[in-house]
């Protein structure tokens, strides 16, 4: 057996200042040291499994469990494994030469045998040196798996460029990494602090991790299995494991691709309703079952951030950075692949069971609309299954239409003089009921667009769909919303119309209100209040963006439309000029405000009193 020689030397690096750089800048969060060391321990265990499968290791694998222990008195943390271990020469090669990747050399050596390299996690290089972010001395006690010509060795470094290798007492193969914590890092001696880090980064590592007498990880999460092995209950159970207090998901997508990049994972569709913000950043990114981050903005398209679940790709390194994610070609391919898979899944669900799809649309509509807004490739597929919901009900349920179906449904009756199909919509079915019912009396259909992003969605549809325009049902009179070039005759003379307008302008006396007299059917309201579609839409989008804008700061410029053909208009004209006439005009205006839920406070109280007086 080759004896370990006492040796002192200097670590092979190019700058004396490498350790301060590691301590401050290698990772933004010092807790990452534990992820790196445990990953290396798992890596060493996985390598031994590979060697055994290749026939290069014939010994007993035994228990390959990785253990993490803490000694508060000695102020040490120890990470132990029973993997391949190292010889003294390998310590000098892999540890002393910073950034030399043991995993890279291993894969190169066995590249013909190790076609599947997903099991090899890490770098015994810079990742190992993350230990010096929290420790002022690090020891390695290790023994190689090789049975002949090897002896246990001990490596010690105090955070300077100097190291020492000496013989060690260790009868079994494997490695102990012992961290002597620095004074400013003693928080990591607390059991719950360590448990939290291990559960965050290692809960799905492929080798059992033992801490405080318990195994803390699930070594075979569902994304590592074939969908054929899994039941619906398995997927739901895993979702609860990830998000213990969430409602059951609607459905899910199992991702599995090995060319031109490696990617596995499961993405869940949560019940979104109109919840646009608080559920974001729920997708967890892993690399070979090691947790990296839940900030996956550049890996996953922005609209898919509304999904939940796990993505695992060995093509994404552990020390991932935003700049890497933004520039990496594999990440861009992953981004496009996930978009395509999600669109295909939704399309399959729509075709397989449309009724069930419609029942889920309340929850997934926000997601689909957001995808249409932000991704042209998603739009190409989503335009076939995105739905418009009509306020009209059939057998107690709302009617849904695809874009093409809806055009066919309304174009005969809702095409204006410019040959544009006009889609009338409501944002609040109850508040806008009077306007919706007026439209339905004319035989017009009204869709419900009450989603938080619908103002942007409407603009997008108008730009993508030919000869279609959207108008809110209370944005103008119906004859102007769907202008067919026909003019209704007025029962009032021009002089009476002018007089009626003057009465209302005097009563209202508000520069933010524009009064007009129009000839409308007698079954319409005597007075209607509208906010022009363009201005309303701009203000809605400004409110959604959360930013102050020109339109957001503009006062509401309402139109007050008096129906010349309504009998009450003639009654206003025939009333005694002065207080009686103005009182009646004010009552009709307040009635219009009430129909829009705009009559409040003292004005509402006064309206109620006038009404009581009239009825008394």
Automatic annotation (TrEMBL):
Protein keywords: ATP-binding, Chaperone, Nucleotide-binding
Entry-linked InterPro entries: HATPase_C_sf (IPR036890), HATPase_dom (IPR003594), Heat_shock_protein_90_CS (IPR019805), HSP90_C (IPR037196), Hsp90_fam (IPR001404), Hsp90_N (IPR020575), Ribosomal_Su5_D2-typ_SF (IPR020568)
Top-rank taxon, per record: Bacteria
CDD domains: HATPase_Hsp90-like (cd16927)
Domain Histidine kinase/HSP90-like ATPase as annotated: residue spans: 29-171
PANTHER family: HEAT SHOCK PROTEIN 90 FAMILY MEMBER
Family: Belongs to the heat shock protein 90 family.
Protein name: Molecular chaperone HtpG
Protein's organism: Nibrella saemangeumensis
The gene coding this protein: htpG
């Amino acid at each position: 057996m080759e004896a370990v020689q006492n040796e002192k030397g200097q670590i092979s690096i190019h700058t004396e200042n490498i350790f301060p750089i590691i301590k401050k800048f290698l990772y933004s969060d010092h807790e990452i040291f534990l992820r790196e060391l445990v990953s290396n321990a798992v890596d060493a265990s996985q390598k031994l499994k590979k060697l055994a499968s290749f026939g290069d290791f014939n010994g007993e694998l035994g228990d390959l469990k990785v253990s993490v222990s803490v000694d508060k008195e000695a102020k040490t943390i120890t990470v132990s494994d029973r993997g391949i271990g190292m010889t003294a020469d390998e310590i000098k090669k892999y540890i002393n030469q910073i950034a030399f990747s043991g995993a890279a050399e291993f894969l190169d050596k066995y590249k013909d045998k190790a076609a599947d390299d997903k099991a090899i996690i890490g770098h015994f290089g810079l990742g190992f040196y993350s230990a010096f972010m929290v420790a002022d001395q690090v020891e390695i006690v290790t023994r190689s798996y090789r049975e002949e010509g090897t002896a246990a060795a001990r490596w010690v470094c105090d955070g300077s460029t100097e190291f020492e290798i000496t013989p060690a007492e260790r009868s079994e193969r494997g490695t102990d990494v012992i961290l002597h914590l620095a004074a400013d890092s003693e928080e990591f001696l607390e059991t719950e602090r360590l448990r939290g880090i291990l559960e965050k980064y290692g809960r799905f590592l492929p080798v059992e991790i033992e801490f405080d007498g318990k195994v803390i990880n699930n070594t075979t999460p569902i994304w590592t299995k074939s969908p054929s092995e899994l039941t619906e209950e398995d997927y739901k159970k895993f979702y609860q494991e990830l998000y213990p207090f969430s409602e059951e998901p609607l459905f899910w997508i199992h991702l599995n691709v090995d060319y031109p990049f490696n990617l596995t994972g499961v993405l869940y569709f949560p019940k979104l309703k109109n919840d646009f913000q608080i559920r974001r950043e729920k997708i967890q990114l892993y690399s070979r079952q090691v947790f990296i981050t839940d900030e996956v903005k550049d890996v996953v398209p922005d609209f898919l951030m509304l999904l939940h679940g796990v993505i695992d790709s060995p093509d994404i390194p552990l020390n991932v950075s935003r700049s890497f994610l933004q520039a990496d070609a594999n990440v861009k391919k992953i981004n496009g692949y996930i978009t395509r898979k999600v669109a295909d899944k939704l399309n399959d669900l729509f075709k397989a069971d449309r009724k069930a799809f419609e029942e889920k649309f309340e929850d997934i509509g926000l997601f689909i609309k957001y995808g249409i807004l932000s991704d042209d490739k998603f739009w190409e597929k989503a335009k076939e299954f995105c739905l418009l919901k009509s306020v009209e009900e059939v057998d107690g349920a709302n009617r849904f239409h695809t874009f093409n179906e809806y055009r066919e449904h309304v174009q005969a009756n809702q095409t204006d003089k410019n040959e544009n199909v006009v889609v009338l919509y409501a944002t609040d079915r109850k508040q806008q009921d009077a306007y919706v019912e007026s439209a339905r009396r004319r035989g017009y259909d009204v869709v419900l667009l009450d989603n938080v992003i619908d103002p942007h969605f409407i603009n997008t549809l108008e730009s993508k769909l030919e000869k279609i325009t959207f108008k809110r049902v209370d944005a103008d009179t119906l004859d102007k919303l769907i202008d067919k070039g026909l003019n209704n005759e007025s029962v009032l003379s021009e002089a009476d119309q002018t007089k009626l307008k003057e009465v209302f302008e005097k009563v209202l006396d508000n520069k933010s209100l524009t009064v007009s007299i129009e000839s409308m059917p007698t079954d319409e309201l005597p007075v209607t209040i509208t906010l022009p579609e363009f201005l309303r839409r701009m203000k809605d989008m400004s409110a959604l963006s959360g930013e102050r804008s020109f339109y957001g700061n503009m006062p509401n410029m309402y139109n007050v439309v008096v129906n010349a053909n309504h009998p009450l208009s003639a009654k206003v004209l025939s009333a005694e000029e002065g207080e009686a006439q103005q009182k009646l005009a004010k009552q009709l205006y307040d009635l219009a405000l009430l129909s829009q839920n705009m009559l409040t406070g003292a004005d509402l109280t006064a309206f109620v009193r006038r009404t009581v007086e009239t009825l008394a």
